[in-house]
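FOLDING PROBLEM:
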Amino acid sequence: MKSWCVFDVTGKEKEIETLEKESASPDFWNIQAKAQAQMRRLSDLRYEVTVWRDLSRRVTDALDLAELAELEEDESVTSELLAESEAVEVYLEKLEFQLRLSGKHDRDDALLSIHAGAGGTESQDWAQMLLRMYLRWAEASGYKAEILESTDGEEAGLKSVTALVEGSWAYGYLKTERGVHRLVRLSPFDAAHRRHTSFALVEVMPDIEDDIEIEINPDDLRIDIYKSSGAGGQHVQKNATAVRLTHEPTGVVVTCQNERSQTQNREMAMRILRGRLYELERQKREEEQARLKGEHVEAGWGNQIRSYVLHPYKMVKDHRTEYEVGNAEAVLDGRLDDFIEAYLRHTVGQN
């Protein structure tokens, strides 16, 4: 099996054995950050090996079934064999596709932020439509999604929103969505019902929590505490529980007010801050690599990665891969897998 060789199950099992021996050492937890990283690596390896061993078992069972079908010439056995063969093929394609997600943080949870572009209510409504699209995708994919922070638009929609998407490969899949998204439609907010174009920026960061690569000096932080805002009700905080963190060296500002206590809001804000600082470092490395290659990189506003057209025709097109579909409503309802897979295949093909 070619994929088996690429995955190197034997090598992974040897690494598991080494990590298990190291974790049994009395001084293993003396350096907690290193120990936590090794335990995460051990957990990932065990999962991967279990999955591929299960695939091997299913293939062996299918081969045994094929021999039985040949000997007995039983139609029911042949039918069972065909069904199992198709299931194994689909399972294998999924596993092979996950091999494309080779980034260090691809298996981590994701922090997804959406920012409305210029255009007021139009773009703010578009930002809310994008949030709904990603929440539907997360639900259909078996991920847990939680809104961490949001700022309402003046009349409708959202100025900005940040959500935590939890589950294996969440960052690996959602990182394909970062960039500017463009909507063309007949505006429901225009009395003349004219066609409008709106933009929104999608940011995706890994939720790396205590990743040792990102070190935040407390002296570099300005921390502001204030009362949470809200529409009212029993959960409105009377005390100052909302937290705003300003990382002065980079100018990155993070706010969090959705948790019940100041401590919870501060912890969540730190998680978002680590993710954004990681993303800044990633962008710096990519820009430097592009500069060395002589490529021009525009990291500014207006460089859309995907267009969603609802009038005068219906189409969603990814400008990076040229992949497009006519069922725009299905895409806005969360059917994103084809776009995600097309982009990942496209980037692998370029490497």
